[in-house]
Known about the structure:
This protein is mainly beta. It has two domains: about 100 residues, Immunoglobulin-like (Sandwich); about 150 residues, Galactose-binding domain-like (Jelly Rolls, Sandwich), CATH 2.60.120.260. It is built from two helices and 21 strands. Strands 11, 13, 14, 16, 19 and 21 form a six-stranded antiparallel β-sheet that branches. It is elongated.
Amino acid sequence: MRKYLFLIFVIFIIFNITSCEWLDPAEQIPSYLQIDEVDLNVRPGEGSASHAINTVWVYVDGTANGVYELPAKVPLLYEGKHELIIMPGIKLNGITTTRAVYPFYDNYVTQVTFVPDSITKVKPVFNYMDGINFHFIEDFETAGTIFNSSPASDTTIITTDNDDDVFEGVFSGIISLTDTEDSVFIYTINSYSLDPGFMHFLELNYKSTEHLTIGVNVYTNTGPLTYPYIVLKPTSEWKKIYINLTPLATRYGATSSFIIYFSSEKTSNNVEGKILLDNIKLISSQ
């Protein structure tokens, strides 16, 4: 009897080991894709190469493999040569929780060879898409600016070549606010058509001691409308933002024209309030 019980016990152990191996086969060892940083390449007429790409969408052979914040080390269950597609992601309207693929940058496409338990490093280089329309690029490097100030504005925007205030190049735009000249309202001299059915974005670099409102004056058949579109918080470091104007164009664009404006009031305790701007681009997909 004991022999039978022992035999049954041995068979039970063997069955369980075999079952576990069948249910839990050896795990596939991943390969790793490492992306530490990306670049933007620009052509003549496209302005600065400054960008704020901080997220990537990863595709292998056309299959989505996740969204990753940079820098990223991405585990992938692939081996050998494959097509890698990287899509550039941004913070939409500067909001961290609203990340999106930027529609005006192209995808980075390359062939890579993945090796299990090894790291493949890539540094994607993106370009502006062909066929997009730059309505204006204001980099403050030429005489004059594209802005006027309203009669109610205490001050206006000028250029500065102070090394502490310049983002890149020789000049940036500066708005100075004091206790006696404590408000500003500047707007684009020209108006622009933003057709519905297309995408429209405003890009810019900024640094400010004050809250800065970026808005749009919409001129419709029934009269002008003013939209304070977004308010930027003070920042001691230069930042880049992509502002999506597509919803506004979808609502009013067919027979309307648009003027971009910037406004602010000095609320800080600084002796001088300072708003710095650079590389302002209004871009459409048409």
